[in-house]
């Protein structure tokens, strides 16, 4: 199995991945109250325009190549640059803080800088991965994007943060797990390159939630039991009846608000949502693999990045997972990865039981095939 030390190549097709689910923004955009509807509509329009630009870039073959490789004798360290869009939609904006520079007066700039560093540190310390491409890729971010822009996204090259509308969403740099989530889309882009559609797209989103949560837990020194397992807990204003965008511990319970509606995420295959919106429900059905990981991390105990996170990382970077992998394929791959790294024991058993708890069974023969063969796994329920 590849453990993340393999030579990185060009990234796979980049996808524009926003942290706020389109269904939530669409719900706000349909409200009669312009205070909520107008910022949401503008955010959706910008998101659609960004996705179109990314598709055109990919079709034309103009996607940016990986950044300059770090010299072999140079110690891995982050190379961060923060830009300020100053309320405009032009990227990257004005350069405001470079690697090693002192904090500036703008808290958003400093939070973005810290979040990029925390993401770099988790992947290096826990998985010996040098930046998101494995070869020291510089990390860029832009803050203050657009007017009342209610999202944050990875565009294939950089992190971009909005300031929120002040009614529903606050500044998106406030949530470290959001920063980690978006940058992990970059890791996926450079490794398994999971297609952003249906179950593989939900896995793409879930992997980002997993590592976004691990980055926050690592920064806080938390065990799996101490962690809140919430994604974006800092983003809602006090006006919202909700604790976060998503809950990995209890999908479907993150918010229940008169304006936003109720969190639609399922925790089990019995409640899988078939929809044509949101690329086949990638932000909704990600609750199922999210919950499987939470089950595994709490079953194994201790720091979640050590064993549970290692198994997920090995699966993502092993080079055998197909881009269109569904939940059953990914489950079988994690069982194989657990057995390959830890042998047939506690970890493998815990992985099987965690997937079974969300309605995905992995046959005993699947682990013997390793993370590349998923034919024995079947969803149940």
Structure description:
With 381 residues, the chain is α+β, with helices and mostly antiparallel strands. The protein folds into two domains: 17-190, Elastase, domain 1 (Roll); 198-379, Orthogonal Bundle (Neutral Protease, domain 2). The protein is built from eleven helices and twelve strands. The strands form four sheets. Strands 1-5-6-4-2-3 form a six-stranded mixed beta sheet, with helices on one face. A two-stranded antiparallel ribbon has the order 7-8. β9 (256-257) and β10 form a beta hairpin. The longest helix is centred in the first third of the chain and has 26 residues, at 34-59. The relative contact order is 0.12. Mean pLDDT is 87; it is low at 1-10, 51-65 and 367-381.
As laid out across the biggest beta sheet, the strand order is 1-5-6-4-2-3
Count of domain modules:
2
| Beta-strand fraction estimate | 5-15%
CATH class of the largest domain: Mainly Alpha
Largest sheet: 6 strands, mixed
Mean pLDDT: 87
Q: Cα distance, first to last residue?
A: 32 Å
What structural class is derived from the secondary structure elements? alpha+beta
Order of helices and strands: EHHEEHEEEHHEEEEHHHHHEHE
CATH topology of the largest domain: Neutral Protease, domain 2
Q: What is the radius of gyration computed over CA atoms, rounded to a whole number of angstroms?
A: 20 Å
The CATH superfamily of the largest domain is known as Neutral Protease Domain 2
